[in-house]
Amino acid sequence: MTEQYVAAIDQGTASSRCLVFDRSARIVSVGQKEHRHIFPRPGWVEHDPEEIWRNVEEVVERALNEAGLQPSDLVALGIANQRESTIVWERESGRPVHNVINWQDTRTDHLIRELGGPVGQERFRERCGLPLATYFSGPKVRWLLDRIPGLRERAESGEVVFGTMDSWLISRLTGRHLTDVTNASRTMLMSLQTLDWDQELLDAMGVPRAMLPEIRPSSEVYGEARGQLAGVPVAAALGDQQAALFGQTCFSPGDAKCTYGTGSFLLFNTGQRPVMSSSGLLTTVGCRIGDEPPTYALEGAIAVTGALVQWFRDNITLIASAPEIETLARTVQDNGGCYFVPAFSGLFAPHWRSDARGVIAGLTGYITKGHLARAVLEATAWQTKEVVDAINSDAGMAMRTLRVDGGMTANNLLMQFLADVLDVRVVRPIVAETVSLGAAYAAGLAVGFWPDLPALQANWHKAAEWLPQMGEEQRARGYRKWRKAVARTIDWLDEDDE
Fold first, then answer.
1. Pairing state between β 27-34 and 100-101
2. Which of 31, 171, 231, 348 could serve as a FRET partner for 8 with CA atoms 20 to 30 Å apart?
3. Is the whole model's pTM more than 0.90, yes or no?
4. Which stretches of 4-154 are assigned E, i.e. beta strand?
5. Handedness of CA 270, 276, 279, 284 (dihedral sign)
6. DSSP 8-state assignment for residue 443
7. How many Å apart are CA 317 and CA 438, to the nearest integer?
8. What digits encode the pLDDT tens for the residues 177-224?
9. Are 454 and 249 within 8 A, CB to CB?
């Protein structure tokens, strides 16, 4: 029998990739290409959707060519995508009416305060599991409808449609206007109970139902691809962090993973019930396989982690490449009392303060570039600890193991410090590309390429682990200082700031 494969498109914040996997979940080939970030004004972050689509076509071709494969060698295609990033396009022509508004974009800050009214950011949490924040898609759609002349009328008639990046790709691939339940759960427009668009939320947000995609399970054949992948079933879509949870095979309540990329996202499986957070976390859909009941998760979203290393490299220029930060940080024994809170786009979980801006605290004449490098790395661990403490409180159980993935996990100094401040076992799998793997797994399940979840778990293997070595007194002292630094970021923006 001819060998068969599953492909996954990972449309991320910084680049688009296509990975091909075999039945043992080994990576056969990879194609990747970065796209531009567009910054029209401070706090605004956009992408060109047509550039992203061209890049997706290119990386698919690269991945197939590298492996010497034809589309007929693929049994299914899965999609993982940057979540919350928002696009509106014409239904008939497929032409975008505006650039993609990226998830990091803060232009809706004033709208968020208006929508919250006297209730504030908790106004919609009971229905959609999310606090009012610039992060999510619904307010971004509302901003476009308010700002582009005639767009609301076109949306109400269904002439223009909204989607997150999964919808954009599915539309281009199959001609259908769909989204999956994990991406829909990040819009502030879907009910966590019914898993459908919620009319009360739509009315409050001012978004017409006629422009919304149909919500489908995460693992299901949506249709056959056209063009270069003609005939390949498009059989899965998940938001990238839910895809990583699936790729890490965190299928049981209490399982947790954190992906360390541009930002970092920690998801904790809560099983078949949504747990509403009182600690600043997000309640989200983890996955839905076909007609099975959905799995829910608590999530802590951290806006800036790997992006801080990139900023340190590109804007401060003390290092020439991201891996060099570990070497520089190892020139000192500790942070010298210096803490870096990277609230570049405000603070995400568990604070949700869009008025915050970054600070470097504890500076003295003693501080060197090595201490700054160490503070940059430690910021990722301390932000993770804030999220883990919130999860332990909301879930009513203590996390014991954290599965990690993403580019930053190659930094051994950071991973050890993470285990130290969390006081848990930190484990990295052999296949670190868990976002793409999760999308491939979900697509493969939909077409029977893999039979069930235990078959996927059998593919998971540990590559490295880190055990805590830090004493409780040192951990508590460092965390106390971190919280003091965080407090200094709050309430930076004024009403008259643009």
1. unpaired
2. 348
3. no
4. 5-11, 15-21, 27-34, 46-47, 74-81, 87-90, 100-101
5. positive
6. H
7. 35
8. 999 999 999 999 999 999 999 999 999 999 999 999 999 999 999 999
9. no
